[in-house]
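Q: Here's a chain of 89 amino acids. Please give me its 3D structure as tokens.
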Amino acid sequence: MATIELGLSVDFDISALVAGIRAGLLVAVHAGSCDVTATLAIQETQALTASSHLDLPGVMKVSPGIALLPGGDYPPGPPAARRYSERMS
């Protein structure tokens, strides 16, 4: 009986994530893009390689937000309680 060894490698390279920042808080992470490369090997010899580029959909919301500045740099009170103009300055 003969044995054939197969190998499959799949690499995901995710890039271009975009941070949503409001009033000094990280409030969302917007998906970017992904390059995928798959390689098939037979008996440890590379037989086939294929690549593709994907634009990733979606947004991951971070609620209530992650502070990006030292605490003393924010006005008093929770961000939701501040007026829009105060949050945007």
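Q: Can you summarize the key feature?
A: The beta strands are 6-15, 18-22, 25-30, 33-42, 45-55, 59-67.
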